Model the fold of this input.
Amino acid sequence: MEQRQAAIQSLSGRIRELRDRRKAVILAHFYQRPEVQDVADFVGDSLQLAQQAATTSAEVIVFCGVYFMAESAKILSPAKIVLLPEEEAGCPLADMATPEAVCLRKQELPGCIVITYVNSSAAVKAESDFCCTSSNALQVVMAQPQDRPVLFVPDRNLGDYISRRAGRRLELWDGYCHVHDRLTADDIKSAQTRHPEAPVVVHPECRPEVIGLADHVTSTGGMLKYVGASSASTFIIGTEQGMLHPLQRAFPDKSFYSAAPHMVCPNMKLTTLEKVRWALEDMAPQVEVSPRVHERARQALVRMLEIT
Ligand code: 13P
Ligand code: SF4
Done:
């Protein structure tokens, strides 16, 4: 254990040296491994990370997350080098929508507004009017005129939740996140039996019946705010387990329990400290976005940032 801690410290020190030499900033999502979050300059949810990427003065962005997040960073900061330490870190939810299929659906819904969750490819964003994240999806939907259909791509659970919150019908894509969609009402009930005093906080990518059992539904960043404002001392957390680390770090006197042992995103765990070091040493792998889709994808992201 001590040996592992010493190895983490030494590797983190080397990463910080390289980061300074490369004039880089290290951004990490809350689902990353604890030691990767700890070496990052900024840890956040998808929206906060996109905002950081759009405004950073660093010359290089090291993105510890999954591909669509690094791609969004490149779209928002095209002059910067964006490194994704593990280029195989994808998001199966993002892969559930293709630009061709979105175009076909648009033809079936004349005059529709397409709102696309950032968990999507640049090519799908390019076919969209607005992007959104789980923190601002309600705001983005509420900003749309009532007299036009809205197509919500690709997460059906988030879309269903937002449709009920906004009190308006949304045309839902049939995509889902396998990590959140696998959380069942029975998982929640059994966690409640173990921790009867704990409020249940879940991510809106969870199924409607799970959302129905929750005390609070919010993005990963929203979970930190909710816990900070709550007088409770124990919480059941219904999202990817990496989220327990920033919660425990911010609130060392409170206790956090994962809603189910299977809530692990294998793609988020592909990034290791070694890969962050190699990325900074080799200045690779770099994320590039095809010029064919870049400008239209950027517009959808910028419209989202303007609303938020
Ligand atoms: P957040 O926008 O809440 O950070 O969620 C990102 C994500 O990938 C959820 O699975
Ligand atoms: Fe994609 Fe789900 Fe992993 Fe988030 S948790 S990156 S939505 S697979």
Observations:
- Residues 45-46, 119, 133-134, 177, 203, 205, 219-220 surround 1,3-dihydroxyacetonephosphate (ligand 1) (CB under 6 Å).
